[in-house]
Amino acid sequence: MSKIIIALIVACAMSSGVALAAGGKTKPVEHYHWSFSGINGKYDKEALQRGFQVYREVCAACHSIDFIAFRHLGDKGGPFYLEECPEGAPDTLNCSNPNDNPLVKALAAEYEVEDGPDDSGDMFMRTGLPSDTIPGPYANEQQAAAANGGAIPPDLSLITKARKYGPDYLHSLLKGYTDPPETVELDPGTYYNPYYKGDMATLLKPVYVDDEGKPLEGVDVPYGGVLKMKAPLVDGIVDYIDDSVPETVEQYSKDVTTFLTWTAEPKMEARKTMGKISLLYLLIMAVIVYLSYKQIWSRIDH
Ligand code: HEC
Fold it and tell me: Whose CA is nearest to atom 40 of ligand 1?
């Protein structure tokens, strides 16, 4: 038994050693205060709407969000949730139901989605409906890779769950692009980001490495890595309806991060409310149990 445990420990130590050797260091992510963090955290609805706009006008050119249907955008806690119908809407509508929500319906109708097969077995295009998932930019992975220098842009629905410190990482990454350090030489079509995983030691210019390709003494290996996505956000690239909101990389990145945190956990607010109710329930139970304990043992000497 103990041999197995030792073998396991050795195996873990070795594999983590290999993992460390294969990658360089990345810059520690910056931590931000988000409206959705903490036990009382909530998504800022306007930030969600702006974030969806940034996703749609910028990121959607390359990234899908396959887990999100139009109707999800009108769910409670979502960017386009309506408690009541706007004035003038027919009485028969219940706009808190996303399938009746006029904003969701209008949005879905702006898209063309593939449906079928029809009676003759052919696929056809039709106008989007609230129940459709939001269509992605590419028909398949090969097309995605061909359009992006061989790299496949990952689906973004769950990206903030798939990375450590998800929202902080995403925000750091999006606004973290800088010129590559002097000591390295990048391949064309690749872009430097200090927060991205990678190993910059392999990209050091020949004058900074020895015969075996190892960095010379005193040469600092820069943080981060290179990726095939160039900085997607630049100041002014998205025109916000609300003029009081800055049109800066910082703001776009914050908004799209809020939106992509919501896509990864649309039911977060319900979960937190449930958590608070459970805590309250446990507290009340604890008081009842304590009082009954007092009552039951009161007649017995101890
Ligand atoms: C022109 C195409 C393009 C656009 C526009 C684009 N991306 Fe990307 N993105 C890519 C590609 C390609 C990759 C994969 C990079 C690689 O593997 O080298 C990627 C990777 C990513 C990753 C993964 C990083 C990681 O840790 O693995 C995230 C997150 C991301 N993009 C977010 C966004 C967001 C948010 C936007 C919109 C603000 C956006 N992207 C816009 C092409 C794009």
Answer: 59
Q: Which residue bears the tokens 């129940």?
A: 131
CA distance 40 to 43: 10
Tokens (6 digits) for 133: 């998932």
Ligand 1 site-directed mutation target among 62, 175, 177, most atoms within 8 Å of CB: 62
Report the nearest-CA residue for atom 6 of ligand 1: 59
The per-residue pLDDT for 16 is 45
Quick: pLDDT tens for 77-124: 999 999 999 988 888 889 999 999 999 999 999 999 999 999 999 999
The per-residue pLDDT for range 136-158, each reduced to its tens digit, is 999 999 999 999 999 999 999 99
The C-alpha atoms of residue 77 and residue 75 are separated, in whole angstroms, by: 6
Q: How many CB atoms lie within 10 A of CB 74?
A: 26
User: Tokens standing for 13?
Assistant: 């130590």
Ligand 1 neighbours, Cβ below 6 Å, are 54, 58-59, 61-63, 148, 151, 153-154, 156, 159, 163, 170, 174, 227-229, 232-233, 256
Distance, in Å, from the CA atom of 278 to the CA atom of 269, rounded to the nearest integer, reads 14
Residues 6+ apart with CB under 8 A from 289: none
Atom of ligand 1 nearest to the CA of 232: 41
Alpha carbon distance 143, 64 (integer Å): 13
- Residue ranges of the chain with per-residue pLDDT less than 50: 12, 14-22
User: What tokens appear for 224 in the block?
Assistant: 């981060």
CA of 167 to the centre of ligand 1 (A): 14
pLDDT at site 17: 41
